[in-house]
Amino acid sequence: MKFSLVIPAYDEGATIESVVRGVVRVLRRDKFDFEVVVVDNGSTDNTAEILAALKKEMAEVKTVRVFPNRGYGNGFLTGLSNSSGEILGWMHADSQVDPEKIPALYNKLLSEDLDLCRAVRIERKESFFRIVQSRAYNTLFRLLFGGRHRDINGSPKIFKRAFYERLNLFSRDWFLDPELMIKAMRIGSKIGEVEIYWDARKGGPSHVSLLTALEFLKNLLKYRFFSKGLLNINEKQRSLNSASSLRFP
């Protein structure tokens, strides 16, 4: 089965080449039928030039340009809408995850007939504040939505196309990961985990800020207490979500 891995990149000129080369090397070695869909998510640095060179060199690399940046989630959804695989996935472009873990996630998805297999960060080279913030966030998620799932925002995530299409994801902001998990839990999906080591970010500051944390909190409460309107998308919204991301403000 063909595997499409989406990697959004927003001003990741310092890391995107090594990330893409690492992913392609591992998937070629393990004889995957694959494509790597890299979304230039409104970059203003040299990301576009690097991606153009990689695309010429590697037949498996596909690039999509979004400008200006329309959000973290928009980058992933744009890449997925331009993917052709029966198995889909996404990961970050900041070199914090070892691409060697991708086959483990993919193989567990298929061998255990899962809908979704995702990485769980068990050791993280990040600031004390970020680690505490993440633990508090995941605890709150479990209190609001139940379940025992760890590390809701862990990446990579790999899933079947039929599962993805059933969810009708629409978060164009940082809430895409929790939206996916909430909807997957609501429909009783089979979810697996692979534990990973999360390295320090390379090549520039993180795009996560205090405002991001407040945005997460706001959306968690919206989903918990007003879920009917958010989790049951009508046909008009579904049509909008399938359209080009450039139409979204």
Automatic annotation (TrEMBL):
It comes from the Bacteria. Pfam families: Glycos_transf_2. SUPFAM superfamilies: Nucleotide-diphospho-sugar transferases. Residues 4-161 form the Glycosyltransferase 2-like domain. Transmembrane segments: none annotated. This is Glycosyltransferase 2-like domain-containing protein. The lineage of its organism: Bacteria, Candidatus Wolfeibacteriota.
